[in-house]
UniProtKB/TrEMBL annotation:
This is Glutaredoxin. Transmembrane segments: none annotated. SUPFAM superfamilies: Thioredoxin-like (SSF52833). It comes from the Bacteria. It comes from Halobacillus halophilus (strain ATCC 35676 / DSM 2266 / JCM 20832 / KCTC 3685 / LMG 17431 / NBRC 102448 / NCIMB 2269). Pfam families: Glrx-like (PF05768).
Amino acid sequence: MNKITLYVKKRCPLCEEISSLVELLTGEYQIVVQEIDIEQNDELMRKYLFEVPVLEVNGDELDYRSITYTAIEERLH
């Protein structure tokens, strides 16, 4: 089973786009998706404030500059 954690914040169009991309992959792979709102956690806000969305795929972190369908798919099994 694959695990994807998506770090997002409200009113973030790019976050919504990446969430939709992950949803496409759930049709092809067994994936458990966890979405975390960084605005609910001070530590995550400091870490990811200007970097969201951030995607963690099976322990491998991708920031918004490197998230593509292919980049995610390469990390799935």
